[in-house]
Amino acid sequence: MKFKLNGFKSLLMLGTALTLIITSGCSGDTASSEEETVKIGVLASLTGPLETYGKQTVAGFELGLDYATEGSNEVAGKKVEFIVEDTETKPDVAVRKATKLLEEDEVDFLVGSSSSGDTLAVLPLAEEYEKIMVVEPAVADSITGQNWNKYIFRTGRNSSQDAVAGAAAIAEKDVKIATFAQDNAYGREGIAAFKEGAEKLGATIVNEQYADPNSTDFTANIQSIINEKPDYLYIVWAGSNAPWKQLKDMQLEEQGIKISTAAQDIASLKTMDSLIGMSGFSIYYHTLPDNEVNDWLVEEHKKKFDGEIPDLFTAGGMTAAISIVEALKKTEGDKEVDGLITTMENMEFETPKGTMKFRAEDHQALQSLYAVTLEEQEGEDHPVPVLIRELNMEETEPPIRNGK
């Protein structure tokens, strides 16, 4: 059964176990041969703790195809079809769904996933089936590091890029920093990368705390941090059970400990009232980039979703779609994998965050991030990241960690 997805709210109405197939092109033409169709399998958390991320990614992916194909939903004369599978934010499910996409649906590309754990589990399948996987938005360094293979390209930023931006915001000689993160690949790799960047700038890491990703009580972690009396607490966090309220209740700032973290998606920002005035960094907020692609995204998203603004993972989904379409334009629709890999290495393409470039050595997309402060603004129901300065792709370029 096939569905035409007309908006993000339509996606929210679909059942959690539903497989979505979005077919673009002339209505009624369902008899195209495999050679006349580009099939993309999108792995996303449509349920589970990261479901908001997954749903935004899918909405952004559809918008990205519309933008990159100028509304034709064709590239080099081929129709574009994408099939969405729910990983449920579970690695074993992600592997099963990816295998289904590769074997039964015979997709030409994989995209995903919302979770680093899901994505790491799927990476070997891209190599086994010799299909390009565009990673978005999973962040763990090991995806383009020790677990990388030549079929992996990442449009999302990695932990080291976050770390460079995070360190630039607070780290300098003789500054003492404590860290706090979830005890998972995202959290541990994010802290490892931050430590590397901060120590290069002369800061000292005095305490590292990790919490179960499902925990809601962080008293022991926070008290350990307070006991060390750092100048800053740097936090790596994803998901809805963030520690912001408990940090406020335990009065860290009154004890001289400044908090710094990423200003992430809008749902996270809505929990960060206690961090107004914070210096940190942003991966994407709709007012930060100044380019035509982002202008288009903001305008079209508002049209399509009843005035709603695009969020972090919407922009990421759009970027992943653009990267695939731009590669196929350059190959004139040729889906031969080795040729696509050669084409995509060092390929520059325009995104809502400006120009990105797939680095040849590890296929990580080099990209801008943003040094920001969080400010209260009239008419907004969340603290707003306000630009201090854009950190360009050269400034945020991460180390190459895949040994190539």
Protein architecture, described:
By secondary structure, the protein is α/β, with parallel strands linked by helices. Helix 2 packs parallel to helix 11. It contains 12 helices and 17 strands. Strands 1, 2, 3, 4, 5, 6 and 7 form a 7-stranded mixed β-sheet that branches. It has a 7-stranded mixed β-sheet with strand order 9-8-10-11-12-16-17, with helices on both faces. The longest helix is centred in the last third of the chain and has 19 residues, at 312-330. It has 2 domains: 8-157 and 289-366, Rossmann fold; 160-282 and 369-391, Rossmann fold. It is globular and about 65 Å long. 34% of the residues lie in helices and 22% in strands. It comes from Cytobacillus oceanisediminis.
Relevant terms:
single chain; 404 residues; alpha/beta; Rossmann fold; 7-stranded mixed β-sheet; 12 helices; 34% helix; globular
SSE topology sketch:
Blueprint: H1 8-13, E1 20-23, E2 37-44, H2 51-68, E3 74-75, E4 78-86, H3 91-103, E5 109-111, H4 116-129, E6 132-135, E7 152-154, H5 159-170, E8 176-182, H6 185-200, E9 204-211, H7 219-228, E10 232-236, H8 244-249, E11 258-263, H9 266-269, E12 279-282, H10 292-304, H11 312-330, H12 337-344, E13 348-351, E14 354-358, E15 365-366, E16 369-375, E17 384-391
Parallel strand pairs: 2-4, 2-5, 5-6, 6-7, 8-9, 8-10, 10-11, 11-12
Antiparallel strand pairs: 1-4, 3-4, 12-16, 13-14, 14-15, 16-17
Helix pairs in contact: 2-11, 3-4, 5-6
